[in-house]
Amino acid sequence: MHPQLKSSASMGKNKNSRTGFPTSPQPEIVEEITHSTHSKHPLKKVDLPDLFTCTGCKEYGSGKRYACQQCDFQLHDFCASLPSLLQNHPLHGQHQLVFHAKPKQANAGISWPKCDVCNKSTKGFTFRCRACSFQMHPCCAKLSTEMNFSVHPHTLKLLPPVNTSSSGSDTGIPCSECKKGRSGRMYRCKVCDYHLHAVCAKDLINGLHDNGIPHPEKPNTVGNTVLIASKVFIKFVGGFIEGAGNGVGEYLVDSITRGRRSRRLRTENN
Ligand SMILES: [Zn+2]
Ligand SMILES: [Zn+2]
Ligand SMILES: [Zn+2]
Ligand SMILES: [Zn+2]
Ligand SMILES: [Zn+2]
Ligand SMILES: [Zn+2]
């Protein structure tokens, strides 16, 4: 087998040249795996700068991933090779954690159970404790009690959990990266007054930060995307009308309402 021949015929390379991604190292490493949750097709290791949702953990990612070349199935590189058990994990050393491919059921069908590290919903791959209710995302399992991140020159230490779990309210300490107060665990610098959310630290692991992608604020659902898109459209049209005075703006509004009216008329006529 010639992995390089296989690489030159792959669609990954075409994509790279089309998007003008010159930093991609030249001979591209071809690595194919078969994952238990997607056994019908092999997954190929690729490194692309776009935002994706991991089919395994349902969280965002960018950069390195394992992708199916035949359907819309992509896994974080770390989600593709998770151990079935975690022993002595720094964030939950007292009990063994078991990998689950399927999430716990949503509470009364309303909200998904939360991760004990980042306080975000767990909708896919999780590590769960058998002895207590602790659970966490695969990405959160990559966090430790003391870490060095590229965004800060000093070692950060994870603060103990704050007891705000039921209300989900934040710790009140603004994070030095996102400048917001958010729930979930938090890191503090041992040297200076720098703070970092665990949830913000995840973007330093999942490739979003490396590829310059800000964390999308809304959950990745079609409904929200449509909502955001229509809001942006309304804002744009509104701004346009304001700026255009009473010439083009009026015509635009007129044609929109007329379009609606004529559609309605047509329906009534039928
Ligand atoms: Zn994942
Ligand atoms: Zn597939
Ligand atoms: Zn988490
Ligand atoms: Zn436990
Ligand atoms: Zn933050
Ligand atoms: Zn510092």
From TrEMBL:
Region of interest (Disordered), residue spans: 1-26
Every DC1 domain range: 37-80, 90-141, 151-201
Keywords tagged on the record: Repeat
Record field: compositional bias (Polar residues): 1-23
InterPro entries per UniProt: C1-like_sf (IPR046349), DC1 (IPR004146)
Protein name: DC1 domain-containing protein
